[in-house]
Description:
Layout: H1 4-16, H2 22-34, H3 41-51, H4 62-72, H5 80-89
Helix pairs in contact: 1-2, 1-5, 2-3, 3-4, 4-5
Amino acid sequence: MPTLNEVKYAALQAATGGKGTLNELELSWLGTKLGEFTGTLNERWYKEFLLNGVATKVGLPWNENAYIYLGEQGATGKTLNERWYQFWANA
């Protein structure tokens, strides 16, 4: 079974058509999705959470926002890593 990073890398390569490191591809993918190419990886994800109404939950840490966001995207695993795996496997 492929690892989370292998699944994520394959999904990002397919989505961007690009080459580069995992982080470079993820930054590019989020930049295209958000329409801007500034900010760190976590800042871009947080903006994605905001745009999807997740990060409006007062006081939730980044990981909890990610957990909720992924669930709303159809990734319903028990742990955050399981949800990320499902998210990227179906991207």
